[in-house]
Design goal:
alpha/beta; Acyltransf_C; transmembrane; Phospholipid/glycerol acyltransferase domain-containing protein; transferase; about 400 residues; 7-stranded mixed β-sheet
């Protein structure tokens, strides 16, 4: 027992070392920028002539970047997520374009969406609706941009036309057998009790039931998106995530190897049951969905699990080795040659040059952490548009 505790301590100590963090950050930086470069070239020379081929290429390029992030969750920190979904829904999910509606309660709940899609083999087709500033983020933001995520300003008068244009562009010439998942957060911002109470004032004014665990969803963006997508997707998926341990997980803890245990409750709503041609009914649909989502989360609060909430556990939806293999490949192809060059640098470079190098390296790892942390707030603008 004591040896096991010692091993865990040494494991966390190793993963928390600055040099280890710098090395992993460096590999992610170089591999990510190389992927972005290939994406840029494909946008210049392939997109104008063959959009289907462009999307196939970027499907696999995006998988390289997203897999390095899911590697951190599933392998580096040895964290897990248990998914509760009906077997028939799970089978359909792997074979269709879909819209995913999630809750936004945690710093890393966005990462769980990638983890689930990675296990399903759909990570390369995952897209978001995010605030416009996110597309300027190197690696993650640029990858979102090249894979046709939609970015908004939060000004409804201009965002309406952007949504209409980008949705129509997304569904044109989309290749068969390359399914996409579009993630939306109708709450518009990460949950806090203060924000919930503020939104419940609006709920009371509108005569809506109060939510205990969510912010009142905003509906304009959803109404417009479902109107544009209803002919091109076959279902909407309601995904509610919750963490058993720790209660409030942080990305910084994952990076140093702290383990998390999460659960997700996913239910499928056929597109035929989603009103798209009546704005009032579509708005009522999303309000009702969040009332049901709130009850599902309340079940988790009371029982500490979604087991028994209505869906069976997806026992075969375990982590796959794809992201581990991709990470190891990046470490071998980029990391090992860099170690050799680094040793030569230490042996022959001047002290002044070495100091400058280490300052740049530390700044780089801090920048990567800030970049990922910023990317963890991407779902705001769809439903936070001013003027709603």
């Amino acid at each position: 027992m004591s040896r096991s505790i010692d091993d865990q301590y040494l494991n966390r100590y190793f993963k928390g070392l600055t040099i280890v963090q710098l090395f992993l950050g460096y590999v992610f930086l170089i591999s990510g920028l190389l992927v972005n470069l290939i994406q840029f070239l494909s946008a210049c020379f392939i997109w104008p002539f063959n959009r289907a081929l462009y999307r196939k290429i970027n499907y696999h390029l995006a998988t390289i970047i997203w897999s390095q992030l899911t590697f951190v969750y599933q392998w580096w920190s040895n964290s897990d997520i248990v998914v509760y979904i009906k077997p028939d829904d799970l089978e359909k999910l792997c074979q269709e374009n879909s819209l995913w509606l999630g809750n936004h309660r945690y710093e890393v709940d966005w990462l769980l969406g990638w983890v689930v899609t990675q296990r399903l083999g759909l990570a390369g087709g995952s897209k978001i609706l995010g605030k416009q500033s996110l597309r300027a983020l190197p690696i993650i933001g640029w990858c979102w941009y090249f894979t046709e995520s939609i970015f908004l300003r939060r000004v409804w008068s201009t965002d309406k036309s952007v949504l209409e244009r980008d949705i129509q562009q997304l569904v044109q010439d989309y290749p068969k057998n390359y399914n996409f998942t579009l993630f939306l957060s109708c709450e518009g911002t990460r949950y806090t009790e203060e924000k919930r109470l503020e939104s419940m004032k609006i709920a009371r004014e509108k005569g809506l039931p109060e939510l205990q665990h969510h912010i009142l969803p905003r509906t304009k963006g959803f109404v417009l998106i479902i109107k544009g997508l209803h002919k091109h997707i076959t279902a909407v998926y309601d995904m509610t995530v919750a963490f058993q341990t720790p209660k409030q997980p942080e990305l910084s803890n994952l990076l140093i190897g702290h383990q998390c245990q999460a659960e997700a409750f996913i239910r499928r709503i056929p597109i035929a049951e989603v009103p798209y041609d009546d704005e009032k009914k579509a708005a009522e649909f999303i309000q009702k969905l969040f009332q049901e989502k709130d009850k599902t989360f309340e079940y988790f609060v009371q029982h500490g699990t979604f087991d028994g909430a209505g869906n069976p556990k997806a026992v075969h939806l375990k982590r796959k080795k794809q992201d581990l293999i991709i990470e190891l490949a990046c470490l071998l192809l980029i990391g090992l040659p860099s170690i050799y060059l680094f040793i030569k640098f230490l042996l022959f470079a001047s002290i002044f040059t070495q100091i400058i190098f280490f300052i740049i390296g530390i700044a780089g790892i801090v920048g990567i952490r800030l970049m990922i942390k910023t990317a963890s707030r991407p779902k705001l603008p769809l439903n936070s548009t001013k003027g709603e």
